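Quick one: structure tokens for this chain, please?
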Amino acid sequence: MTALFALATALLWGLADFGGGLLTRRVPALTVVMVSQVVAVVVLGAVVLATGAWREAGPQLWFAVAAGLVGPVAMLSFYKALALGPMGVVSPLGSLGVVVPVAAGLALGERPGPGQFAGIAVAVVGIVLAGGPELRGAPVQRQAVVLTLVAAFGFGAVMSLIAHASSTVTGLMLALFVQRVTNVAAGGTALWVQARRGIPALPEGTGPRILWGLLPALAFVGLADVAANGTYSIAAQNGPVTVAAVLASLYPVITALAAFAVLKERLRTVQAAGAGLALAGTVLLAAG
């Protein structure tokens, strides 16, 4: 079950990142984050009301609040980086956030077997190589790298926090709702501050109508991200966090493949080799 839900997480995050990266080329990153998260709040709110999940409120929801504060910073940094550089380069660096939950799992006493340790090492190397990282070049590329590393730490922290925010399926729905409400509150404040400084929330010469046209894509990004958080939490609760985190972090391979299929971004030799290593690491982890 851990491997299945973790791989589902990778698929959902990979597609969400691809969609978010495309949207930030038309709309400011903070606006993309805000609108997609508002859609998620509405849907999750309906689920919480329908299932009576609010009855499971407790101190563990502070983990969800913390994840909600860290998440917008990570997403904003990542979407800005995706808009600056090729998705197949930026996305693998973002996956380095896997170090945070893996370190947390080891600190809590998890001890993967030799085969799983080998799988972790092979998969992490493959994830990074899958994008064919290009760390030399113009200042814009260096800025994208810095933003991506900030996002990576944030993503890793969110993975660790959300895994501790609930212990039941309905409790998970409530935790995800609280996380998204916090996301919207933090992002809304940032958007207000940005507007006060004269930075527009929408591209010059456009109005709210552009958001209506992009609403289906924005909704997909928000809901896919929510679903990924949910499947990761289930994976982490039903198996070793070290395994769940590494398998979930295969999402850059999905993003790179989507960029290849839709944007015709060529997969270089190092990227193909990285995808192969990531797959090999997945097999070792699942076998262990």
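Confidence is low (pLDDT under 50) at residues 135-140.
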